[in-house]
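Input.
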Amino acid sequence: MCKRFFLTFIVLILTFGPNVAEGRNESSLLPKPKGQYAIGTQKFFLTDSTRKESFIIRRKYRELYIKMWFPVEVSGELEYEYFLGDYPTEVVSGIFKAVGLDKELVNEIKSTTTNSVKGGLEPLGKDLFPVVIFNPGFYFGMADFYTSMAENLASHGFIVCSINHPYEQPYVEQSGKNAKMKKKKAQLAYLQLYLMENFRKLELETDEQIVAGTRLYLKKLSRFDKTVRRWTADNEAFIDYLHYVCNSDSASALFRRMDINNIGLMGQSIGGAVAGQVCLDNPDRIAAGINLDCFQFGDMIDKPLEVPFMLMETEHYEIWRMGNSVVYRNVADDFYKFTIKGAKHFIYSDAAILDLIEREEQIKMIGDVDGAEANALINSYILAFFSKYLQGNTDDTLFEAVDNEQYKFLKIK
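Output.
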């Protein structure tokens, strides 16, 4: 196992003046985490020496960029990270220009800071903290675009590890020089989606038609399916690494604080389908998982899911909702379904709380909902779920059935 990985740590070095607070940044654009812990971050590159990269001309071993948020003890004068500080303005504005995020506005957003303290901080105390592995979305996904979720979990005693997947997300740092891509294969998946939904009429009235349509959807969107399997392998490589390094005498203080017997998986968009597939394939190593608004690609339609799971959806994409009603029939453990009414796909991201975006443009991303309220609600359910299944919290108050104007929550099994 030790021969599988090459590891490069890079300390986040950011330059700006200090803010004074006790682990909370009063000037942050992001919501204040509600937990008791201050938050530190660290990033590193992990190379899986068992797999060659298929997207580039000069093939090299598959390299993953991991960013971690974790509990730290702080005092006195603190400096905080910039929001989206790891991502070039041109990349962010290029991705979201259709919803009004030009370079000027992106620079304004990036000039704000998060609640995460910068610097080479040691993790808090000697306690072990459960691990939540997060997978950002496909092509639009950036680790830092989900900072409010990561910070809230870390403030409550979790170590959050976000895996960025190279060449299928907008910008992923590399430890060395970037390699030249063969072609933009990642975008071909959207072509399959377009052809499927514009030139293939699906009859979805009876249960039999919905099941048949779901299977056809899985078959025709083969590139998304391959992405899910590639990212699943990325997650398994990282989990293998955690089991190796956390049991090593030479492990750093941060890895020694990881409770690898309590690992949760979570992701948004295609990252959510990856969370489901990793849970399906690794029930002995994963304690619980959450899919944030994605159709469940992969094998779950024919195999039982044997870990607790929560599907968190919006109402904007009916074919995904109908397909998931078929796929998730195979859940064999506790299963919950949460739906934000009237919301759109990016409600499960920091787009929900970026008030610098014009309201008309924000609605295109998150729907005509109160973003701040939805963000708080989403974070409360994510925290309650992982607290129950990773920390052993016995308070089930939030797990009672709800159906109101804002959202619906139901325990299916």
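The first strand starts at residue 5 and ends at 10.
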